[in-house]
Amino acid sequence: MDQNNLIVYLEHEDGHVADVSLELLTKGRVLADRLGVKLEAVIVGDKLDGVEEQVFPYGVDLLYKVSDKRLSPYTSNPHSAVLINLFREIKPQICLMGATCIGRDLGPRVSSCLHSGLTADCTALEIGDHTDPKTGKEYKDLLLQIRPAFGGNIVATIVNPECRPQMATVREGVMKREVLDPAYKGEVVDLDASKYVSDEDFVVEILDRHIEKSKINIKNSPIIVAGGYGVGSKENFKLLHELADTLGAEVGASRAAVDAGFTEHERQIGQTGVTVRPKLYIACGISGQIQHIAGMQDSSIIISINNDPAAPINTIADYVITGNLEDVVPKLIKYYKKNSK
User: Is the pTM value of this prediction over 0.90?
Assistant: First the structure.
């Protein structure tokens, strides 16, 4: 078995590999190339046919498949057991997984058992060197795990010099997803589930499962009208919905607006919400805390509407409109309707 490679845990539902896993394969390929190692992936579940076609184009060199009907849907103990035992065998130097319900359950279990440490909700991953300030010892080619810390007031770079694997979770949408080569072909290794997971691990049985699909899809919207605490009220958020309806856009929000009860949590954009990359982002009454900016800074065009000319978001905005949104937004709606006839 190969050692010291980079591995991505693939989430899988209804025959489809999750977007966040494909995003991590894209990033994983770049990191693996930088290290001169193979990019591996592991998938655990049932009915895993067709997974190769979905993941090989992202540059996967080796895909471990662990198939057993009891491994689907996800439960904590069996999936943790598979990864812990597999990682003891193949000794990856880096493991990446999505900061999803599953990743947040699985990651800490695996890292705790392997005594390896874990950095959650990374916004960037790089390879770099590190010198221990106490001992002066130099470490080459570590995974630099970058995330906002202390309430987002600083951006911390976290390293794990000694323990392996270096583990990190990343939210969906944070990394860009790009096919490396549609014709790329890796190797499949089918593993016998019974060698990695014991019958005792299947103590929990799922009798019934309901998944409510979100009706809000801000992640894929090309235009987003987002509101912050400065919007002031639930009523004023209706103005944003009106503007969004006019432009064929979706409405987003900052954490402060969601916490204040102006709109629902599914619309939250930023480090604790979703990451978006629309063609146009209209920020209304958003001051621009680092956590929010982390979730929308890759928007093609950013327009900021704010009555505070010194709002931090104005420094990354392409256009700044200084004024009260109660005055500005109705004018935007009016002129857009007038000019789009």
Answer: no
